[in-house]
Amino acid sequence: MGYSTIELQIKNFALTEAKMDKVGIANVERFNESPAGNHPTDFLPGCQSVVVFCTRLPDGAVNAALRTFEDGQHDLHGQYGAFGYVGAPNYNLLWTNYKIARFMENLTGEPALPQTAGPTHGAKMMSMRHCAVAAGLGEFGWSSIVLTPEFGPRNRFGAVLTTAKLKPDPMYSGPKLCNPEKCHICEKMCPTGAIPPYNSAQKRIVDFGEGNVQTYCGINWNKCRIMCHGCYEEFNSSGGNLLDPEITNPLSEDLAPVMKYNTDHPLMHFPQHNPTWKCGNCLEYCPVGNWKERFHDTGISRVNTYQFVDDYPDVDMDTLVPQNA
Question: Contact, 289 vs 150, CB < 8 A?
């Protein structure tokens, strides 16, 4: 392969043979603050390292979701579900995890346990978001989604646990990718207010060790779930404008829309009972990852999200740093 170390051989395989877009390695010590039952050694006794890889979502799949919110083409949102969330990305990562785990076992002679991607086959899984940050692929955004500098939140992650002791990559230390004190796009684009405004009381704190502490918001998951269901027109109390960030009568958290589904609705024709992928505004409109150039300037999105960034246009939309700094 032209590489001398085990770590480089694994990375090269992930990027070439497995066709992933990024790969990184975390040591097990970065998971010392994991909740009970979710530490790597709870899955693989003796685990020493976690190899994490990333695949970017196709811009076209994100476009399908934007068409729902901007044009009311609800029958297109399933394309996002199939190719941007539950379908192809999960199965792509499922086989990628398997392929990389087999390669690692053959290379190192050590056990390697692939992690499932999404709720596949009822298997318990670690948090891929925390694995991605621990392996240096990116950082948490305020929305709780992991941001990479290349693709923003429009990534999916997979991981393989191994008892082999591999050299870890440094955690991400580049330009700050999310500044929730200045950027309010994910907060304002959330139709039910599931993502709260930035304040210290709303922070979730994750300590990865090595002086790396990250924060993200405490999402109201009831409101988030209701919004996913609310993509059906019959549950949209705002008169058809799901983009309105100031819905005066947001959907009640006590609503049970799943009980009212019309089983003949075309959006019911997918192999998942709870359509948890039905919204995605926080992923679709986040400015990180060259969003302006990839989505706004190309005409894929017509929404002026920049009104929710303090001091725009005097900041760079990818770093939220003043342009004269």
Answer: yes
pLDDT, one tens digit per residue, over 6-53 is: 999 999 999 999 999 999 999 999 999 998 889 999 999 999 999 999
Kindly provide the b/e burial profile for residues 215-254, where b requires at least 16 CB atoms within 10 angstroms of the residue's own CB.
bbbebbeebbbbbbbbbbeebbebeeebbebebeebbeee
Phi first, then psi: what are they for 222, rounded to 5°?
A: -65, -45
Distance between alpha carbon 258 and the CA centroid of its chain, in Å? 25
Domain with 60 in it: 6-301
Chain centre to alpha carbon of residue 23:
15
> Is 191 part of any domain?
yes
Mean pLDDT (whole number) for 143-162: 96
Q: Is residue 65 part of a domain?
A: yes
Is a pLDDT exceeding 60 seen at residue 262? no
Would 43 be classed as within a structural domain? yes
Give me the pLDDT at residue 325, please: 45
Task: Tokens for 163, please give them.
Answer: 């008892």
Q: Does any domain span residue 35?
A: yes
Torsion of CA 195, 199, 201, 206, to 10 degrees: 80
Residue 55: which H helix or E strand, with range?
strand 49-56
How many helices and strands in the chain, by DSSP H and E?
A: 10, 8
What element of type H or E holds 92?
helix 88-108
Number of domains in the chain: 1
Judged against a pLDDT cut of 90, whether residue 226 lies above it is answered with no
**What band does 235 get if pLDDT is binned at 50, 70 and 90?**
very low
Q: 223 or 238, which is more confident?
A: 223
Between CA 14 and CA 160 the distance in angstroms is: 11
